[in-house]
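Budget justification aside, the reviewers requested a transparent look at the raw inputs and outputs of the sequence design task funded under Objective 1. We therefore reproduce one unedited record. The lines immediately below are the structure tokens for a 305-residue chain.
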């Protein structure tokens, strides 16, 4: 029995040695302006009673979302005469539920999630961001570390894969389009993990805890020249839309749409307005329709069934 305290002590020390680095890594992952520790986002001030809440899926850590999305809310507040504020969530599906239950008036969804939410709940896409060419098209990419011996998707066999949440397009693109095309089944991987957001997938790659990661091109661009390289790129897909519920305030939707579509990227002062916006929105928006996303329905139908 005298051995029991010593054994318990060793177990406690081992658990502490595991948990402390894990907690520090988690704090870094949810913190992020870089792959290194930084200051956490400040809590937003209490919102006025007549606040228009806009949801955001958990595609990025909260500090990244507040930094790049709050300026869009500020712009809407200044141009519409209503007060806009973000309402974050812990998962992609939670944002959809916030919208369906009326806790948010609009939401930023991913393109794949929009298709699912439209089919299941009738949500409506109103605008979508445009890229540097002025087109509402974006891509997903497959990343590896610089110096990796992985050069093409078929090299994933027996390797560790880090992905953003299951409801992201990037995860679905890799699992349902890329890997089947090269004969690599998920069971042929050494490991497959879905991380809380796109940045977390890149972090796991950079830390050596994964051999490859699939993320949005906007996130890959953030890490350009910082230890990663691209080995596969998706075809262009429709931009991730701002959406509203099937039953929505048409006047409010009109105000949001007019405000965002009134921005002309060729006009003087445009860059000053969007300078602090998330890079995905820095070129402005264009009108969105449900038909824009039919290409995703065709691509991802087997996965969605």
């Amino acid at each position: 029995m005298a051995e029991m305290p010593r054994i318990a002590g060793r177990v406690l020390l081992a658990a502490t040695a595991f948990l402390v680095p894990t907690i520090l890594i988690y704090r870094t992952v949810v913190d992020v302006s870089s792959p290194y520790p930084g200051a956490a986002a400040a809590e937003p001030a209490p919102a006025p009673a007549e606040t228009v809440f806009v949801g955001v899926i958990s595609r990025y850590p909260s500090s990244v979302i507040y930094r790049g999305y709050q300026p869009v809310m500020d712009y809407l507040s200044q141009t519409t005469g209503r007060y806009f504020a973000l309402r974050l969530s812990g998962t992609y599906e939670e944002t959809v539920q916030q919208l369906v239950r009326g806790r948010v008036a609009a939401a930023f969804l991913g393109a794949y999630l929009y298709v699912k939410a439209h089919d299941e709940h009738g949500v409506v896409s109103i605008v979508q961001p445009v890229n540097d060419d002025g087109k509402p098209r974006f891509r997903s990419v497959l990343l590896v570390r610089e110096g990796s011996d992985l050069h093409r998707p078929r090299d994933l066999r027996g390797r560790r894969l880090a992905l953003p949440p299951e409801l992201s397009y990037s995860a679905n693109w890799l699992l349902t389009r890329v890997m089947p095309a090269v004969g690599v089944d998920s069971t042929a991987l050494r490991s497959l993990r879905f991380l809380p957001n796109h940045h977390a997938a890149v972090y796991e790659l950079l830390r050596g805890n994964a051999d490859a990661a699939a993320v949005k091109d906007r996130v890959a661009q953030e890490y350009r020249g910082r230890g990663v390289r691209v080995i596969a790129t998706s075809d262009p897909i429709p931009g991730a839309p701002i959406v509203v519920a099937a039953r929505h305030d048409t006047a409010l939707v009109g105000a949001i749409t007019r405000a965002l579509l009134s921005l002309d990227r060729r006009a003087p002062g445009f860059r000053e307005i969007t300078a602090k916006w998330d890079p995905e929105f820095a070129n402005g928006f264009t009108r969105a329709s449900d038909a824009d996303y039919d290409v995703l329905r065709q691509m991802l139908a087997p996965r969605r069934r």
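The chain is about 40% helix and 20% strand. The chain has a mean pLDDT of 87. Computational costs for records of this kind are itemized in the attached budget.
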